[in-house]
Every structure is written in C-alpha cells, then in structure tokens.
Amino acid sequence: MLSYSKFIDNDRILNAAQNRPPLKPGDTDSVAVRILQAALIKTGFNIPDGATGYFGNQTALAIQDLERKFQLSVDQGVAGREVFQQLDDLLRGRAAPVVTFPSVLSVIIQAGVNTQTELQPYINKANELLNPFNALLRVVDARTPRLEYRDPFDETPIETLSLRKLAEKHTFEHHFALRIIHLPFKSPRTYGITSGGMFSLADGSTVRDFIIINAAKRRRDNTTLIHEMIHATGFVKHDKDDPESVFAEVDSDRSILRPHHAEALKSSFFSRTPK
Question: Residue 266 and residue 256: Cα distance in Å, rounded?
C-alpha cells in the first residue's frame, strides 16, 4: 500500500499502482508522469531531461534500471504495482538503495602515425551513456609511441590481421582489455569496424575482438566507440527499427544505450567488477 504523499494524492498513480492500467511510454497524463519522473530522479535513477511530464525512452530506461537494481520483473519500462511500491518504500525510508560496485570496462587505445583527430569525445560519450547503468570505462592510453602504420587502413582480412599483429607487438600486455586502434581508413563511408573471433598470441594464449576506428570520419553523435564495443560483445545485426539506439547505423541526435546492450557490455570479456 502506498503512503508517499504525492503518490496517494494522484488518482492516476493509485490506479497505476494496482496495474489498472500501469503508466507506460506515451501516457497522456503528464501530471502523473511528472510525479513518477520526480520520484525516480529523487531515488537516484537518471532521466537526463528531468521531470518533463513526457513518458519517453529516458523514463522507460530509468524504470528498467530500478527493476534491475531491486530484482523486480524487468519489462518494457512500464510503471505498475512493483515499481510504485519500490519507489514508495525508498521515498518513505523503508528501503535503502542497493549499493553495487560499478562495472569497469577496460579498453586500451593505440593510434597510427598519421592520426590527427582525438578520441576523447567518443570516450566522454561512452561514459555518459554507461553512467546510468553503473558502468564506466577504464582507459589505458598507449598512443605514445605511435604505431608505425602510415598508410590509410584497408578493410581486408589480411590487412586487419597485419594491423592486429603490429598492435600486439607494440603493446603486448592488457589481454583482458578491449583493444581500440585509431587511424584513417581508405573507405570514406566507414566509422569503424570490429574484428570478431579469437586471435592467437606468440605465447600460445588468445585474445578476443578488437576495434579499429576511422580517424577520417566522425559521427556527430560521438557514439562510434560504444557502438563498436557492443559489436565486441557479440551483437551483429544493427537496430534498424530503432533509429535512436546507439546500435543503429543512422547518426542520430538522440542516441540511447538500450538496457540489453548495457547488460551485454557489463558481462563482456573486458568487464570487471572491483571487489
């Protein structure tokens, strides 16, 4: 039973808390939605645009974050009985937020001799998108000295293998990090590629996928790095019907990291949770 004053003063929320029906994306009751959003923000769940009264993707993602954190039934970002009861318990001090250590995604960055652009905007954007999911990047900067790779990268299997060998020879440790190589491509269309599969090292050990990012072409939404990181978790098919997703091929002003992609990153071979 709800007891938080702003919940019990709103009939729509009282009904939603009984699933008659729940609040869901596109809901037209902006007052109830704004109360829900304010409650989510107050209890630590990120909605970048704030309590606007519009129930869109940001609110749905915040609800899914709450559901994962408190082991509720994860759905499509709908606020019903479980969600409102959990928020009510938090707001009335009957439950403390679950304290979890962040997942640390380790990447090692290298660059070719003729690489001019910077990766920092990509790194900043990745951390911005990962933060609501309690994850962050740990970046090992191995761009100095530069890789002795002067020509624009040609996306052939032989050239990719050659580049990987050069990168491993240049910096052979950090086998549990995701390798990011930044240099210009010959192709004017490609933002980046992820080379899948296993790669054998001289000592007999193996390392996994690595990413090559085109220094000659930049996405205006700065999501190339995290897009390719999702590929490195095993996702192949892009989100063709979801243009706002960071895993879509379109360059969108509102790129969003979907929960299933965030979970894949947090359980990837380059993810560690500090003890």
Answer: 16
Q: Domains in the chain and their CATH numbers?
A: 5-91 (1.10.101), 103-272 (3.40.390.10)
**Residue 137: per-residue pLDDT:** 95
Four-residue CA torsion sign, 31, 33, 38, 43 = positive
> For residue range 192-230, what is the model confidence (pLDDT) as tens digits?
999 876 666 666 666 678 999 999 998 889 999 999 999
CB atoms near residue 129 (< 10 Å)? 21
Share above pLDDT 90 across residues of the chain, in percent, rounded to a whole number: 47
Q: Can you give the pTM of this predicted structure?
A: 0.65
- E-only strand ranges, 100-209: 103-111, 135-141, 178-183, 192-195, 199-200, 206-207
Q: How many CA atoms lie within 13 A of 262 on its CB side?
A: 23
CB 132 within 8 A of CB 60: no
